[in-house]
Amino acid sequence: MAKKKSAKKSGQKPTLKRKAVKSKVAKKSKPTKKSSSKSSVATATIHSRRAPEPVGAYPHARRVGELLFLSGVGPRKAGSKDIPGVHMDAMGNVLSYDIRTQVESVIENVRMILEDSGSSFEKIVDVQVFLTDMKRDFKIYNEVYAKHFKPIQATRTTIEITALPTPIAVEFKVIALA
After folding, report:
1. Are 67 and 84 a contacting pair, CB within 8 Å?
2. What is the pLDDT of residues 111-153, one digit of tens each?
3. Are 69 and 107 in contact (CB under 8 A)?
4. Alpha-carbon separation of residue 138 from 13, 83, 98, 106, 127 (angstroms)
5. Which domains does the chain have, with CATH numbers?
6. Is residue 140 helix, strand or coil?
7. How, if at all, do strands 155-160 and 124-131 pair?
8. What is the DSSP secondary-structure string of 55-114?
9. Which residue has the higher pLDDT, 144 or 19?
10. How would residue 160 be classed by pLDDT, with cut points 50, 70 and 90?
11. Potential cystine with 60: which of 41, 48, 108, 158 (Cβ 3.0-4.6 Å)?
């Protein structure tokens, strides 16, 4: 706020960095265009062929105008129920997990969905992160996140939740430019 006040006092407007981006057509996704008579904004539902299947009745992403909204993305591997970094007993109970491995896997899944949507990792605008154990995992998660996101400078919110729908410790919710 101090910068805004000083900019107002000096009569100068604060400057914002803007980067021009161009969209390209996705070749590895199946967008389903839906039009509404109430809205002139183009929308498309995106189903990535490379990312793990969603665990519910929702798409990987939805394009609305020039924005792309990704559904929650976890660390599972495509084509299986395997969760990188998770060790379970015969009953399916989590014995241990490696947050570094899970965060790397989530980031790779986000990257695939964005690319299959015709966007890219560099076009991420905002990230919401859900951790199931903030005290234990935040430091390592933050290190991995910084390695991938520092050049992008996306906004971020990280919250702790009690559980996720599968035995994972992290999930990302992403908004990007289409």
Report:
1. no
2. 999 999 999 999 999 999 999 999 999 999 999 999 999 999 9
3. no
4. 36, 19, 12, 15, 15
5. 25-62+74-120+137-158+171-178 (3.30.1330)
6. helix
7. parallel
8. SSSS-SEEEETTEEEEPPB-SPPTTS---TTEEE-TTS-EEEE-HHHHHHHHHHHHHHHH
9. 144
10. very high
11. 48
36 SS3 class = strand
Decide if pLDDT at 10 tops 70.
no
- Dist CA 16 CA 18 (whole Å): 6
Nearest partner of 74 among 125, 121, 132, 153, judged by Cα: 132
165-174 per-position pLDDT tens digit = 899 999 999 9
How far from the centroid of its chain's Cα atoms is residue 65's Cα?
Answer: 18
Structure tokens at 30: 């199946």
**Could you tell me the sign of the dihedral formed by the alpha carbons of 107, 127, 112, 74, in that order?**
positive
User: What residue type is 63 in one-letter code?
Assistant: R
- If one counts every other C-beta atom within 10 angstroms of the C-beta of residue 154, the result is 18
Average pLDDT, the chain: 85
